[in-house]
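Please think about what follows:
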Amino acid sequence: YRTIVREHVVAAEPTVEYRVGARVPDSVRLYSVPREVVVEVPAIRSYKYMVVNNRVVLVDPATSQVVEEVVD
């Protein structure tokens, strides 16, 4: 979490409640998980993430569905 929030990304508009299983609109910009995080947790290599309301949310880019919220 701390590594990801240090990245300088544009936060998504909180117009939708993003929870596990929810679809992310195509207009939301997704970011690649930082390399140092993938080294620590290889299972998340295929996911992208977004930041909304100071929350980090992992998204499966193939389905645009939220798969997990990353917490500190």
In short: Strands lie at 31-32, 48-52, 55-60, 65-70. The two ends are 5 Å apart (CA to CA).
